[in-house]
Amino acid sequence: MRAFSLSSLLFLTLAACGAESTDKDTAAAIDTGDSADTTDTGFDDAVLAADLWASIADYDTWSLPAGWTDTPVLSGNHMGAYVVTYLNDTLAGWDESGAAPAGSIAVKENFGDEAGTSLMNLTVMQKVTGYDADHADWFWAQYNPDGSVAMAGKVDMCSGCHASAAHDYVYTDPPTGM
């Protein structure tokens, strides 16, 4: 299901690179979560979120994790949403030994209904070398249905839950109670 448009991508990209705003102003417009880690890594969360958005434009053509389907399944951890998860080729090719490779991306569609007709948001995780060593270098983002960024960066809510995953913050078991 595709609820995002090219105009949303253009708006998000322009917002992240806006000529009239500074990087500080752009970053302040994005909720970067509630992370207690405030060390500067040299990354701009607004730019990472815009680049990530561009790289997931065709996510619904990506692989599904083994044993999963494109039918929304009730998630115990994504605020009671019905979810479908997609993996880019980098993450789908990972053998789950060691750390997931840099560039790995997982996109989770979060629906308000079992039929998958009411998209609430997309939650996305991307492995970015050097981004957040305390949380295995995962960058987190949540996009609203209009393509705007709801949260991006070192989001404690995301890393806190995914820390219990058996494989480098990535849940790979079929989606019962995820």
How would you portray this structure in words?
- With 178 residues, this protein is α+β, with helices and mostly antiparallel strands.
- It has one domain (6-162).
- Helix content is 22%, strand content 20%.
- It is built from five helices and six strands, in the order αααββαββββα.
- It has helices at residues 6-17, 23-28, 45-55, 89-92, 156-162, and strands at 73-74, 82-87, 105-111, 119-127, 138-143, 149-153.
- It has a six-stranded antiparallel sheet.
- The two termini are 21 Å apart.
- Mean pLDDT is 79; it is low at 1-39.
Provide tags for this entry:
single chain, 178 residues, alpha+beta, 5 helices, disordered N terminus
Rg over alpha carbons:
16 Å
> Strand order across the biggest sheet?
1-2-3-4-5-6
Gross geometry: globular
- Main sheet record: 6 strands, antiparallel
How far the N terminus sits from the C terminus, by CA atoms, comes to 21 Å
Number of DSSP strand runs: 6
Total DSSP helices: 5
Which class of secondary structure composition applies to the elements? Answer: alpha+beta
The arrangement of helices and strands along the chain is HHHEEHEEEEH
The low-pLDDT segments are: 1-39
Binned strand content: 15-25%
Overall tally of structural domains? 1
- How would you state the average pLDDT, rounded? 79
| Proportion in helices | 10-25%
